[in-house]
Amino acid sequence: MKFAIQINEGPYQHQASDSAYFFTKAALEKGHEVFRVFFYHDGVNNASRLTTPPQDDRNVVARWAELAEQHDLDMVVCVAAAQRRGMVDEGEMQRNGKDATNIDPRFRISGLGQLVEAAIQSDRLVVFGD
Amino acid sequence: MSTLHTVNKSPFEKSSLDACLTHVSGGANVLLLEDGVYAATKGTAVEQRVKEALDSVKLFVLGPDLLARGLSEERVIDGINVVDYAGFVDLAAENDKVQAWL
């Protein structure tokens, strides 16, 4: 079965990103396909490559990036939500005249159409948030 | 058409569980996760409400989130099924859609 995952909450806030991660991992382990993970609203903060949690704490961003690496996951960050929160990739840096980028390379910035497409293409859309 | 409803907030903090239980129709499945697991425990102010809901809907609770809060499975109201993340995935697959009560 094809799953799409939507995350509306940032890391280390409550539990949405953790729940979504463990759900996604369990789905992949069961042989399901995860069509896309879409980060929306404060969820875009899950994509910051500059995240540095204490060593004895989980690294939410690195954990997503590793899972994406292992399973070739498509992890999309909403562009409008990202711009508001200062989440920047190379393209956005140049387009908006910024002097830095902060998105982990396993994530990509794109539009809301990617969420709509994921909802259409997948059998289930599972939403995690606050 | 069956729906899996997910509730992730404590009934003592938000009204999402009450809204969900008021809305759902017979045969629906409701999964309590994150702080929502508090609603699955015995001896709370919402226990009666939850027990009544069991007459018409199936209730599930995410085991890892119970354990993370120091709640053992013995404290779960009879009739509520404890599932792990793999069980959560199965529930999402078995139902036609998943509705998060955020």
From TrEMBL, chain A:
- Record-annotated membrane-spanning stretches: none
Q: Where in the cell is it found?
A: Cytoplasm
Q: Which UniProt keywords apply?
A: Cytoplasm, Transferase
- Domain of life, per the record? Bacteria
Gene3D superfamilies from the xrefs?
DsrEFH-like (3.40.1260.10)
User: Any keyword Transferase?
Assistant: yes
**What InterPro entries has UniProt attached to this entry?**
DsrEFH-like, Sulphur_relay_DsrE/F-like, Sulphur_relay_TusD/DsrE
Tell me one Pfam family matched here.
Answer: DsrE
Is Iron found in the keyword set?
A: no
Q: Which family does it belong to?
A: Belongs to the DsrE/TusD family.
Q: What is this protein called?
A: Sulfurtransferase complex subunit TusD
Q: Which organism is it from?
A: Thiohalocapsa halophila
Classification of source organism: Bacteria, Pseudomonadati, Pseudomonadota, Gammaproteobacteria, Chromatiales
TrEMBL record, chain B:
**A Pfam family that the UniProt record links to this protein:** DsrH
Q: What is this protein called?
A: Sulfurtransferase complex subunit TusB
Q: Which InterPro entries match?
A: DsrEFH-like, Sulphur_relay_TusB/DsrH
